[in-house]
Predict the structure of ABC transporter ATP-binding protein.
Amino acid sequence: MTNALSVSGLSVAAGPRIIVEDIDLTLERGQAVGVVGESGSGKSMILKAIMALLPAGVKATAGQITLDGKVLPHNGGRKERGHRLGLVLQDPATALDPLMRVGDQIAEVRRHVIGRDRVTARQEALDLLERVQIQAGRYRHHPHELSGGQRQRVVIARALAAEPEFLLCDEPTTALDVTVQAEILALLEDLRTTRHVGLLFVSHDLAVVARVSSRLVVMRHGRIVERGTTEQVLTHPEHAYTRELLDSVVELSVPEARA
Ligand SMILES: Nc1ncnc2c1ncn2[C@@H]1O[C@H](COP(=O)(O)OP(=O)(O)OP(=O)(O)O)[C@@H](O)[C@H]1O
């Protein structure tokens, strides 16, 4: 069977209000799928539903989430999700424990999730820091001593410490400046190609999503309005909303082109 994370017919609601409706998505290992759409279109809720991390009062009301064909329960389900799914969020400052050394935050995952002893976990945390291009000397630093880009690298290293097969990224570069953004995208791309990690990449920024994804899903008001290969969607958008998104990217690049 294909190693895949699938969402079918997923709907999410807050009381009577439907937030996300009838979502179908499949992500295979080594593949990157981008989910794009304006703020409030329901992108984050899909990731939260997959991770069983929906906020209080918000529930999955229909549909299934499966991993290699096995249904994951909408609530709880830590065991079934295991450490196969990792999550990287927009703000690395809040994702990390401010009081703990960054290296220890990674080592802790190696110990508790993978079951390594203290010494091995520490060494492997150093290896993971190196993998995301953070110097070993930073192991003992606290999050506030690092730049935003370095913190996001630490967040990614910590997610990788659990050896996930699929990494769900919610606006992972939005809080970063453009150069650092490019570095983080390159790192994610490297994980996909060398480690075969499947990436579900959510952003309101079509240009960013298109850079890392081979397939795109466009969302509006909680529904998927368009999907296809990145090339298809960029060159032959079918939905008026997708064309609007594309126009805004083109408009942004016009001053540069004229300069
Ligand atoms: N805790 C909550 N309770 C009820 N509704 C919520 C809650 N959190 C978010 N929503 C609503 O769910 C909808 C989808 O939000 P979601 O965060 O998934 O959008 P998004 O596309 O990820 O946007 P953004 O890019 O701003 O994060 C929004 O209309 C939002 O108001």
